[in-house]
Write a structure and sequence with these properties.
Blueprint: H1 2-7, E1 20-24, E2 27-35, E3 43-46, E4 53-57, H2 63-72, H3 74-82, E5 88-89, E6 95-98, E7 101-107, E8 115-118, E9 121-124, H4 131-158, E10 164-168, E11 175-177, E12 182-186, H5 194-206, H6 215-224, H7 228-244, E13 245-246
Parallel strand pairs: 2-4, 5-13, 7-9, 10-12
Antiparallel strand pairs: 1-2, 3-4, 6-7, 8-9, 11-12
Helix pairs in contact: 4-5, 5-6, 5-7
C-alpha cells in the first residue's frame, strides 16, 4: 500500500543521503547516513559488518553536520574497529560456526565437490583452490533451506503469506520484510544457533501483519517465539563474529 501511495505522489519517499568515506589512520572508512524522525540527537555506531559506521540523523540535521560529527569521533571509531574480531578466512584447519557449533574445516582429496558434516568437522571435497567458494555456496544453500522452513512455519502460525524469500549477505540487518511480501535474510544466520535463526524468521514474518515495531507486533513475535530476548542478546554479543568470516562468492 505504501509503495502504491508513493507511486501516485500521495506519500513522499524519504530522501536517500549519499554515503561518504572518512580517512582514519590511512584507511578509508565508509560512512552511511540514516534519518530517523524520532531521533533527538546524532548517534554513531558501527555497521553490522564492522567495516564502517552509520550515523543516525534527527529531523532538520543535514549531511554535512552529520559528517562533521563522525570526523570528531574518529578516535572512537578507530578504537572500536581495532577491538573487532579479525577476518577469519575459510581454509583447511580453520574453525567455523555452523548452527552455533564450532567445526574444523577439513579438505578431502575426493574429486566430487561435496560438503558434509561429520563429528566436529565440516568436510569439503574437490580442488583445494575452490574450498572457500564451495563451502560458501553450501552455507548459502543450507541457510535458504532453514530460513524457508522457519518462515513457512511462522507464516502458517501467524496466518499470513509471503510472496518471495531470498538470502543475501546483508551488511546492516539480519532480515527485512518489504511491503510486497518479500522476505530477505542474511545467509550468515546459518552460522548462528537455530533459536537465533528462528527468531529472525519470526520477526520478519510478523512484519507481514504489522509493518512496525509497536506493541501488537512484539506481542505477536513473543507469542510464537519465546526465545526472542535470548536470540537478540546472542546476536548482540556474537554478531561481529559472524561477519568476521571472510566468505567467498
Amino acid at each position: 500500500m505504501t509503495r502504491l501511495l508513493e507511486t501516485f505522489g500521495l506519500v513522499k519517499r524519504p530522501k536517500t543521503i549519499p554515503p561518504a568515506l572518512l580517512a582514519i589512520e590511512g584507511k578509508s572508512i565508509p560512512v552511511s547516513f540514516r534519518r530517523n524522525a524520532k531521533a533527538r540527537r546524532l548517534v554513531l555506531r558501527l555497521s553490522r559488518d564492522r567495516a564502517g559506521v552509520i550515523v543516525t540523523l534527527p529531523p532538520r540535521v543535514g549531511r554535512s553536520e552529520a559528517l562533521d560529527f563522525a570526523k570528531k569521533s574518529a578516535r572512537w571509531i578507530s578504537e572500536r574497529l581495532r577491538s573487532e574480531p579479525a577476518d577469519r578466512p575459510l581454509r583447511a584447519g580453520a574453525e567455523l560456526l555452523i548452527r552455533g557449533e564450532r567445526r574444523v574445516i577439513l579438505h578431502s582429496g575426493s574429486r566430487r565437490g561435496t560438503v558434509a558434516l561429520a563429528d566436529a568437522s565440516v568436510i569439503v571435497s574437490g580442488d583445494a583452490a575452490h574450498l572457500g567458494r564451495r563451502l560458501t555456496d553450501w552455507l548459502k544453500a543450507e541457510a535458504k533451506r532453514d530460513l524457508l522452513k522457519a518462515s513457512e512455519f511462522y507464516a502458517e502460525a501467524m496466518g499470513v503469506k509471503f510472496h518471495r524469500l531470498s538470502v543475501r549477505d546483508q551488511k546492516s540487518r539480519w532480515g527485512s520484510c518489504s511491503s510486497d511480501g518479500t522476505l530477505s535474510y542474511s545467509w550468515r544466520l546459518i552460522l548462528a544457533p537455530t533459536f537465533v535463526l528462528d527468531y529472525v524468521a519470526a520477526h520478519e514474518v510478523a512484519h507481514l501483519k504489522h509493518m512496525n515495531h509497536g506493541r501488537q507486533f512484539w506481542r505477536l513475535v513473543l507469542t510464537h517465539c519465546p526465545n526472542a530476548a535470548r536470540a537478540k542478546s546472542w546476536l548482540k554479543a556474537h554478531g561481529a563474529e559472524l561477519h568476521a568470516y571472510a566468505m567467498k562468492g
